[in-house]
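Worked Example 4.2. Consider the chain below.
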Amino acid sequence: MDEITFEELRKWPKDSYELIDIRDEGLVAYGMIPGALHIPMEAIEEGNSTGLENISGDRKLVFYCQIGRKSRELEDFELLKGREIYSLEGGYIAYVRSLMHDDSAREEKQNKAEVSIRKKFHKQLFTPFARACKFYQLIQEGDRIAVCISGGKDSMLMAKLFQEIQRHRQLNFELTFLVMDPGYNKENRELIESNAGALGIPVTIFESDIFDAVDTIEKSPCYICARMRRGYLYSKAKAMGCNKIALGHHYDDVIETILMGMLHGAQIQTMMPKLHSTNFEGMELIRPLYFIRESDICAWRDYNDLHFLQCACHFTDTCTTCHEDGTTSSKRLETKKLIAELKKNNPFVESNIFKSVENVNLDTVIAYKKKGERHHFLDEY
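Applying the procedure from the previous section yields the following structure tokens:
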């Protein structure tokens, strides 16, 4: 299969080709190239009716995945026999990179993003952010908070919300915007730096070799990677004089974690809004996006025409997130779909899942753990 660069594709007449996104739903949710059709690779592999048969035979088919690896594997599929097909070199990431070199509107982009938080998305984003900080006492006088930025939409928005709440000057606290480079390739690191610059986020970047360390791990590499990342972040933040690290988990992450714990882990647990570190004395983890819906984060991102890094793991093209609970991206996406399906008949299902871990009745629980010690109802029956 021939490859074509995004710059070369721009020179083709638009009616001479069809651009097709073959990534999974988790990746597509983070954005597509404008005008592209979404036809998952699995559908092409299985030879299903995908919509390809409706595209004129004289039009070239240009496929893209996340980084340009999987799209090169399509030429042997029966469904594409006899068609003129191409793979977009560098995939979706190449498209995003092509946008980040335009610095002409950088100041305008930062201003629009900040004004949108204060006005258009104030109720959806800033209000729940401030409410979580107050309700769970996430920010205290004199705090030095390391805002941990992965490069994705959640952590970038979190950084902007921290800047906004600091502007209100209700408490005196300091912020450090911390980016760990676990082994990103040059292009992904440039994307993070470009987005941070465009949004006015003064990041501090430090390097680690986590990607190399987990590259040969066969069982639960995402789990190990996530645990190692957190340890490195704690260590760096403490060395810089911080007493807290802030992570960008949102409301949807919380309810999905609750449900996955029951369905896949046989336990009832939640993603806590704040935690004391067990390995780094005096350090605390906070999650100030706890009340913010993912759909509202996506709306803010799209309104401001922002394109963020998702997962830059260098040994997989489909990893969408790294979760400490050991669940794969497919399980999380499956849980997300299940919640959406349940919501069709019960509009309160999301809030009910969220509140379920606030209303635990120990009189009706067979057994539970506290500080690692197991308690059974028969102990006091």
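Residues 223 and 324 are 5 Å apart (CA to CA). The domain at 106-334 is CATH 3.40.50.620 (Rossmann fold). Compare this with Example 4.1 before moving on.
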